[in-house]
Each structure stands twice: as C-alpha cells, then as structure tokens.
C-alpha cells in the first residue's frame, strides 16, 4: 500500500521536501493551484496534503471564507475525510489558521521556517 501526498505549491515560500518524501516512500504529487488540487481530489484521495495558508484579508476569498484553504477543506469532508492536512503559515497568521479546525481537524500547523524534522515527525504520526 503506497502513501500519497499532495503538495499544493502556491508560492515560492513552500519548502521543497521532495527528497524527504522519497526517503519515506511517499509519492508526492505537486499541484500548482488550489483549483487543480480540488479537481484532482475528486479523482484521487491522498493520505496527506501539505499546503500553505493565506489569510483572507478583506474580500480576497469572497468575504465568507477564512483563507485560501476553506474550499479545499470542505471538499475533503465530501471526498476524502481521512486525509491528514498539514498547514504551513507565516508566524503572524498561525492564529487564523487555527480557525480552520472548525471545518475539518488539521493534522498539524507549522509556522515558517518549517524544518524537515517537523514534517517527518508529522508524517510519522
């Protein structure tokens, strides 16, 4: 049984842990946008998702959403509730990221800079 992980890479801040994933025998699927991630989620259910958190200051996310991750998390409820979500956030946005637990329980929230050790320990749990 293989382990799959979606890396949703929406900015250059997203750390490259490809070698770590390979060493743990995890198949990484790199996805360049949230829209593409949601479309793929309907076809394939990953064991893990690693995604960046961007708080929705103002109307960036239609005013009703907390962040760029809301729609993905609602989609997980429908298509892949078992998927563990690891969120990467800027230090001053971590407290906003905690609110996402109201949609679906997050596996971990890490503030930048994120280390390989943090990710490895998270994937091992």
If you had to describe this structure to a student in words, what would you say it looks like?
There is one protein chain. The protein is α/β, with parallel strands linked by helices and 125 residues long. It has a single domain, classed as Rossmann fold, CATH 3.40.50.2300. The chain contains 5 helices and 5 strands, in the order βαβαβαβαβα. Strands 2-1-3-4-5 form a 5-stranded parallel beta sheet. It is globular, with a radius of gyration of 14 Å. The protein starts with a strand and ends with a helix. The model has no long low-confidence stretch (mean pLDDT 92).
What is the strand and helix layout of this fold?
Elements lengths: L2 E6 L9 H6 L2 E6 L2 H8 L6 E5 L17 H10 L4 E6 L4 H4 L10 E4 L4 H9 L1
Helix pairs in contact: 2-3
Brief digest:
The chain has five helices and five strands. With 125 residues, it is of the alpha/beta class.
Secondary structure tally: strands: 5
String of helices and strands: EHEHEHEHEH
Low-confidence stretches: none
CATH class: Alpha Beta
Q: Architecture, according to CATH?
A: 3-Layer(aba) Sandwich
Determine the mean pLDDT. Answer: 92
| Structural class designation | alpha/beta
Individual helix count: 5
Shape: globular
Total tally of structural domains = 1
């Amino acid at each position: 049984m293989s382990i799959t992980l979606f890396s949703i890479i929406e900015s250059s801040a997203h750390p490259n842990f490809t070698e770590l994933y390979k060493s743990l025998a995890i198949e990484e699927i790199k996805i360049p946008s949230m829209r593409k991630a949601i479309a793929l989620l309907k076809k394939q259910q990953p064991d893990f998702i690693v995604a960046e958190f961007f708080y929705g200051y103002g109307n960036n996310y239609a005013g009703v959403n907390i962040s760029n991750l809301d729609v993905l998390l609602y989609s997980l409820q429908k298509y892949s509730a078992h998927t563990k979500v690891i969120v990467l956030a800027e230090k001053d946005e971590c407290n906003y990221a905690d609110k996402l637990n109201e949609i679906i329980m997050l596996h971990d929230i890490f503030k930048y800079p994120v280390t390989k050790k943090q990710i490895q320990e998270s994937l091992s749990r």
